[in-house]
């Protein structure tokens, strides 16, 4: 178990704690001893490739799937054996699961059945306004856009004022422009209400921009838990490095007592002490180019990929090809001899 994971589990103030959670379906170990914790009001992402166990983990927290082993604590109370409705957790599904025969107002007020009608409707209207749907109370789900339906589902979940809300691919049905705006609004709403959230996504950018912390999974196993910038810039292994964005994986050698590694692109500084053979990750945006200089490994620009707001150059150096990001000011063209410079320490990977 890695250090951030261990320390997050020890947190005593956690809203949600998941310990050694496991689930098998026949031959498939969908989730294997997963562990993480979520602080009150924190937005936490479960991310990984298709089939890595994100939804199964979320479904076990919701109570729709019974774990084979492990513990789930909400506010310090064990809940893994409780039925979903007893857990006090709000849930927003991918397809929103709105009642088609109920108006927006009645959909949102549904969770408040125990309150008198007036009070129920007044509260539902407050949450409808909060998600920006004021004036649409009387509409039915099929009279709303995907983004509006998404907000109704969220208003319904928030209205019950749970301490924790679970969101399964909540933005997947929205087009790209609406998705970014809805994400920002929902993040603002969650922060305003102080409700903690665990959400599942396979979209790296979404996890990095929406979550306070994220948990990267592979084959049912938690790989790394941490703040987006930390996990992006300091991935623990090659899988996490490659999953969260483009990167260059280089092998290198660290001489006894040295703080740099010899790599095909020259000596690079390391983010932590290491010795012997090492595997390194350097993001394309952390490389820079300078004119070729005597005594430095000779690199050559192989390809130039213009992408509008920036460009990627493919550089051949010491038998390896690396990619680096630059912009319109870059004077180098394919065929030019150059020198590659690492602008920050390379990440030493565990495998
Ligand atoms: N009810 C089930 N019966 C059998 N196998 C299942 C069941 N639910 C999930 N699985 C399997 O468990 C593994 C994890 O599935 P899960 O849905 O949790 O992955 P995921 O990361 O959410 O994937 P996706 O991004 O595609 O939704 C997969 O191999 C999946 O096929």
Tell me what you see in this structure:
- This protein has 351 residues and is an alpha+beta fold.
- It folds into two domains: 3-238, P-loop containing nucleotide triphosphate hydrolases (Rossmann fold), CATH 3.40.50.300; 258-349, Nucleic acid-binding proteins (OB fold (Dihydrolipoamide Acetyltransferase, E2P), Beta Barrel).
- It contains nine helices and 20 strands.
- The protein has helices at residues 3-10, 54-62, 104-109, 117-130, 146-159, 176-193, 204-210, 228-233, 238-243, and strands spanning 16-25, 28-38, 43-47, 69-74, 77-78, 89-92, 164-168, 196-201, 213-218, 221-226, 248-254, 260-263, 266-269, 276-282, 287-291, 299-306, 311-317, 320-326, 337-342, 347-349.
- The protein has a six-stranded mixed β-sheet with strand order 6-7-8-3-9-10, with helices on both faces. It has a five-stranded antiparallel β-sheet with strand order 15-19-16-17-18, with no helix packed on it.
- The longest helix has 18 residues, at 176-193.
- The chain is elongated, with a radius of gyration of 24 Å.
- Bound molecules: adenosine-5'-triphosphate.
- Adenosine-5'-triphosphate is lined by residues 25, 28, 30, 48, 50-56, 202.
- Adenosine-5'-triphosphate binds at residues 25, 28, 30, 48, 50-56, 202.
């Amino acid at each position: 178990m890695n250090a951030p994971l261990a320390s997050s589990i020890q947190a005593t103030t956690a809203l949600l704690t998941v310990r050694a959670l496991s689930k098998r379906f026949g031959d498939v170990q969908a989730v294997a001893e997963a562990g993480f914790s979520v602080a009150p009001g924190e937005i936490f992402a479960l991310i990984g490739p298709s089939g890595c166990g994100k939804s199964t983990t979320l479904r076990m927290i919701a109570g729709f799937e019974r774990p084979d082993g492990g513990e789930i604590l909400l506010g310090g109370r064990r809940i893994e054996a409780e039925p979903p409705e007893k857990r006090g957790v709000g849930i927003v599904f991918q397809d929103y699961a709105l009642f088609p025969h109920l108006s927006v107002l009645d959909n949102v007020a549904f969770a408040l059945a125990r309150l008198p009608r007036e009070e129920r409707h007044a509260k539902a209207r407050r949450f409808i306004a909060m998600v920006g749907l004021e004036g649409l109370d009387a509409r039915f789900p099929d009279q709303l856009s995907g983004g509006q339906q998404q907000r109704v589902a969220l208003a319904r979940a928030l209205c019950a004022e749970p301490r924790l809300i679970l969101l399964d691919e909540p933005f997947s049905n929205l087009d790209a422009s609406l998705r970014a705006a809805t994400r920002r609004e929902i993040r603002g709403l969650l922060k305003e209400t102080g409700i903690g959230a665990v959400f599942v996504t396979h979209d790296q950018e979404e996890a990095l921009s929406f979550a306070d912390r994220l948990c990267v999974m592979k084959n049912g196993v938690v790989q790394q838990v941490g703040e987006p910038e930390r996990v992006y810039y300091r991935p623990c292994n090659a899988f996490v490095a490659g999953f969260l964005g483009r990167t260059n994986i280089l092998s290198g050698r660290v001489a006894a007592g040295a703080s740099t590694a010899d790599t095909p692109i020259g000596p690079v500084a390391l983010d932590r002490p290491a010795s012997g053979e090492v595997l390194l990750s350097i993001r394309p945006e952390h490389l820079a180019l300078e004119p070729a200089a005597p005594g430095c490994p000779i690199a050559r620009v192989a390809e130039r990929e213009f992408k509008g707001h920036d460009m990627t150059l493919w550089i051949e150096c010491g038998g390896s090809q690396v990619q680096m990001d630059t912009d319109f000011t870059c004077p180098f063209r394919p065929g030019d001899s150059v020198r590659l410079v690492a602008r920050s320490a390379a990440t030493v990977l565990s495998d």
